[in-house]
Amino acid sequence: MKQPKIDLPKSRFEQVLDAIGLIVFIGSIVYLVYVFGGLPDEVPAHFNGSGEADRWGSKMELWILPLIGGGLWLLMTFLSKYPHTFNYLNLREDNIEAQYQNARLMMNVLKNEIVIFFGFITYQTIQVAKGAEEGLGIAFLPVFLAVILGSTFYFMFRMLKL
């Protein structure tokens, strides 16, 4: 079956998630600009699995985080406009619209979770550089993985139920 293109407006929930993601993204950039001049020349550039800084680099490297987060957000926003190009396990004529909405919502949730995590990492990296924190925290990696994988599995389960 050729997957049809269907114009589905964004749900209110998707609009709210996008607004939250954009606020966090813009807020992290504004905060970075605000504190940038007062940061030391060397800042944490990488954290290990325990959330401890294990490599230090130039404070210019802090710009990599918002660039990656913003780039992923834009890419996933673009891709979510084409749910008819995604792979589905059980797409049928009677569930096409529901499957497309589920897939698009999954992309929306994931992209906003990612940009929020990148905002948090930017903030925490600045705090470590200023000496206010010691790292991301030991819970960061398990929480990040639980949120991203949990969301993915949730939407995959929904796809199978539809």
TrEMBL record:
What does the UniProt keyword field contain? Membrane, Transmembrane, Transmembrane helix
The residue ranges crossing the membrane are 20-40, 60-79, 109-126, 138-157
**UniProt-listed InterPro entries:** DUF1648 (IPR012867)
Q: Which Pfam families match?
A: DUF1648
Residues annotated as domain DUF1648: 23-69
Name of this chain's protein: DUF1648 domain-containing protein
Native organism is Planococcus massiliensis
